[in-house]
């Protein structure tokens, strides 16, 4: 048995039933809409997307095809999705190149520091005499 609860806010009455995903919105005792929420736990458990209309053959494929094989023009939403994916691609490409540049710059700076330390050590005074000549041979 479902328990019905009602909340009144500025002439709106929101009634929800426990035991189901049913919510009804009333305005001055006139039914406005019914809100059906997807069972997100079930969708996550079965590895489905949160929004079934965001991706899939119904949204990605054309609505029809020509018998002679001509390409079908893009729909309005499909073109916006393609443009959005292009923007994502350019942004990802730009950020990846910036990361590559930063890594190369860091390696170059580290190499310059080691070369500078090595040149400082090489420019210091060196021992002279018989021991140095014997060690050099």
UniProtKB/TrEMBL annotation:
One of its GO terms (cellular component) is mitochondrial large ribosomal subunit. It is found in: Mitochondrion. InterPro entries: Ribosomal_mL52. One of its GO terms (biological process) is mitochondrial translation. Keywords: Mitochondrion, Ribonucleoprotein, Ribosomal protein, Transit peptide. GO terms for molecular function: structural constituent of ribosome. It comes from the Eukaryota. Transmembrane segments: none annotated. It holds the Pfam family MRPL52. The keyword Ribonucleoprotein applies. Its main location: mitochondrion. Belongs to the mitochondrion-specific ribosomal protein mL52 family. This is Large ribosomal subunit protein mL52. It comes from Cotesia congregata.
């Amino acid at each position: 048995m479902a328990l019905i609860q009602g909340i009144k806010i500025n002439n709106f009455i929101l009634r929800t039933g426990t035991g189901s995903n049913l919510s009804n919105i009333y305005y001055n005792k006139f039914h406005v809409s019914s809100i059906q929420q997807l069972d997100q736990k079930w969708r996550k458990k079965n590895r489905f997307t949160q929004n079934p209309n965001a991706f899939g053959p119904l949204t990605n494929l054309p609505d029809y095809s020509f018998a002679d094989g001509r390409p079908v023009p893009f729909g309005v939403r499909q073109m916006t999705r393609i443009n959005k994916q292009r923007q994502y691609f350019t942004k990802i490409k730009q950020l990846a190149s910036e990361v590559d540049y930063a890594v190369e710059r860091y390696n170059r700076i580290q190499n310059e520091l080691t070369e500078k330390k090595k040149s400082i050590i090489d420019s210091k005074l060196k021992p002279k005499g018989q021991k140095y000549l014997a060690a050099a041979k």
